[in-house]
Amino acid sequence: MSLHIALIEPRIPPNTGNIARLCAATDTSLHLIGPLGFSLDDAERKRAGLDYWEHVDEWIHPTWRVFREAMARERCLYFSAHGTRPLWEMQPAANSCLVFGNEIDGMPERILEKHPEQCFCIPMTGPVRSLNLATAVGIVLYEALRQLSIDQRNSPKITSRTTRRQTLDGPKK
């Protein structure tokens, strides 16, 4: 079960670091769509808590256009405080890409307008207008994984990379 997370022009390194850690924990690919608001050199990654990159299937796309050429539109589900449908109405497939705007500007308006049927929100009843990006990604990713586990009860459960490798390659000697 392979999901993808895409971040459009992320700005805050610790948010991206938390999301990278989440991707490593769930074997989810991470797509960073530029321009980025920070450097990706090793020192900057570690200082911002981005020290899990070696365990992340990372894709860097310099622009939205490059990302769109690499990722089929029908695979994308968009998440924004301005989405028109609650996240539990999403219907993720095993190869879905869960797309998020950045911490400052949110989801670009052109995406909300062009794909309203694929734009979802995390319902909130209190006075808060939005959630932290890393928190929102965690909520959405685990809901997608929950839905996929219900849809694919006969599929293997999420396991560590080591366990999965051992299953594919046979037991270690």
Characterize the structure shown.
- Residues 158-173 have low confidence and may be disordered.
- The chain has 6 helices and 7 strands; from the N terminus they run E-H-E-H-E-H-E-E-E-H-E-H-H.
- It has a 7-stranded parallel β-sheet with strand order 3-2-1-6-4-7-5.
- The radius of gyration is 16 Å and the shape is globular.
- The protein has a single domain (4-169), classed as Alpha/beta knot (3-Layer(aba) Sandwich), CATH 3.40.1280.10.
- It starts with a strand and ends with a helix.
- It has helices at 13-26, 42-47, 64-70, 109-114, 133-151, 161-169; strands spanning 4-8, 29-33, 58-61, 76-79, 85-86, 97-100, 119-121.
- The chain has 173 residues and is α/β, with parallel strands linked by helices.
- Helix 2 links the parallel strand 2 and strand 3 (58-61).
- The longest helix has 19 residues, at 133-151.
Summarize the structure.
The protein is α/β, with parallel strands linked by helices and 173 residues long.
Key descriptive features of the protein:
173 residues, alpha/beta, Alpha/beta knot, 7-stranded parallel beta sheet, 6 helices
Average pLDDT over all residues: 85
| Rg, nearest Å | 16 Å
Strand order of the largest sheet: 3-2-1-6-4-7-5
Strand content: 15-25%
| Largest β-sheet summary | 7 strands, parallel
Helical percentage: 25-40%
Low-confidence stretches are: 158-173
CATH class: Alpha Beta
Counting DSSP H or I runs of 4 or more residues, the number of helices is: 6
Number of separate structural domains = 1
CATH homology group: SPOUT methyltransferase, trefoil knot domain
CATH architecture: 3-Layer(aba) Sandwich
Q: What is the molecular shape?
A: globular
The N- to C-terminal Cα distance equals 27 Å
**Structural class by sheet pairing and helices:** alpha/beta
